[in-house]
Write a structure and sequence with these properties.
Structural class: mainly alpha
Low-confidence stretches: none
Number of helices: 9
Helix content: 55-70%
Mean pLDDT: 94
Largest sheet: 2 strands, antiparallel
Number of strands: 2
Distance between the termini: 42 Å
Order of helices and strands: HHHHHHEEHHH
Shape: globular
Strand order of the largest sheet: 1-2
């Protein structure tokens, strides 16, 4: 598994692609991999999940949707990964850059930047084949990196001006 192939496979076809078709697309791509390749893919995914386990990105998720749980933030990080390498790296450098997305997946006409269990697909396939789980690799430290964001509206507007303009609270 190369980095280039990893990013090709996890990237959604359009920013607004629904999570069901996104997950089915990845599952189809992974089905032909051998067990060692599945484990390598899972390792790549875990590395990217850890890279974006950062308070600045959680603050962006909070502005967009009010995301306030570890589980929700894990699904948001899967969404970030699904945007592809260029957008992922841009969000790591500047979470407010997410305001430049031309479309968002929607649920009930609201932005829904979450992909449920996207990080588990390789492990599920591996377990279906072998009856064993892939080795557990945590998707982050005990706490996100960086300084915890303030959820005060004026602080959020200052830290995420473009996102706050798009998603007023």
């Amino acid at each position: 598994m190369t980095e280039e192939l990893y990013w090709q496979w996890v990237t959604r076809t359009t920013p607004g692609q629904d999570q069901g078709s996104l997950a089915a697309q990845l599952r189809t791509r992974l089905q032909d991999l051998g067990n060692e390749e599945l484990a390598a893919f899972d390792k790549w995914f875990g590395q990217q999940m850890r890279r974006c386990y950062h308070w600045d990105l959680w603050g962006a998720a909070y502005v967009i949707t009010g995301c306030d749980t570890d589980y929700g933030f894990a699904e948001f990080r899967c969404f970030l990964i699904s945007l592809g390498q260029a957008r992922f790296e841009a969000a790591l450098a500047d979470p407010d850059s997410l305001a430049a997305l031309e479309a968002w997946p929607l649920m009930d006409e609201y932005a829904y930047p979450f992909v449920e269990d996207y990080d588990l697909i390789a492990g599920q396939l591996y377990e279906e084949r072998t009856g064993h789980e892939l080795p557990f690799v945590p998707s982050g430290q005990a706490k996100p990196a960086g300084k915890q964001f303030s959820n005060r509206p004026k602080d959020l507007r200052r830290q995420y001006p473009r996102l706050a303009a798009m998603f007023p609270f």
